[in-house]
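Memo to structure team: turn this sequence into structure tokens by end of day. - J.P.
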Amino acid sequence: MINIRVENEYSKLEKVVLGIAYDFGPPPKINDCYDPKTRLNVINNSHPVEKELTNNLDSFINVLKKYDVEVLRPQNINSTNQIFARDIAFAINDKFILPNIINERKSEQHGISKIISQIDSENIIRLDNEIFIEGGDIVLNNNDIFIGYSNNYDFNKYKVARTNLKAVKFIEEKFPSKNIHSFELKKDDFNAQKNTLHLDCCFQPLGRNHLLIHENSFRNISDLSLLFELFSNEKIIKITDQEMYDLNCNLFSISDDVIVSDIGFTRVNNILKNRGFIVEEINFSKISKLGGLFRCSTLPLKRK
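Reply from structure team:
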């Protein structure tokens, strides 16, 4: 059996699901793209191929194994993007949550069916049909749960709006002992520079109370004042619009002092190193062309 335990983004990682890129299939047609970054790379004829994607993921798994993390992989589904395991399920404390996701991605959940079968059914939460969440919009920080969401108008308008207000209400009711903080994000189906796909694309708590944040991704300025009350100013690392587009917030913590980052994130990596973090730098540039990065590719099941 798999015992679920995840309370934050940075405690020592023991067990994780890492996405796969096998049998990835050809680039999608432009009208079949469901995020603007993939769409842009299809238009520019720069969509990555399977070998490039698997090489990136192999580099990641080598780092995880270096730190004695048990790595599980989804079962392969032909011609399906199964890289971004974060969104199709997520853990809060000892609960494993299977959310409703967009139709284009529902088949991805079948790839983790064997993993789900090893979890006590009493600890699995399945959502009602009208409650939509993707795991990239759920960020944990011990007693605080941060949720990125879209208002009803945006949720019905944008394909990239993946978490609705009903999801916020659900998390509030299901985890009454937690402090729930919800943030409305800016959305755009066609302009990747103006779109924030998930909360973890613009907001990332790190070990020792540090925070990576891109302020311009938040629709409501008032939300930022709350965050600046929760995290001290000297521990906040602000990233630029270009760095957000490149997904500098979407790093992944193996522990409170070990962070996996892209080798190209020079400024952010140097800041982290200067603050005492061990930064494991790998090339994940091909994965980023699909709109996600390190956190998106992982589904933590157990942290210490």
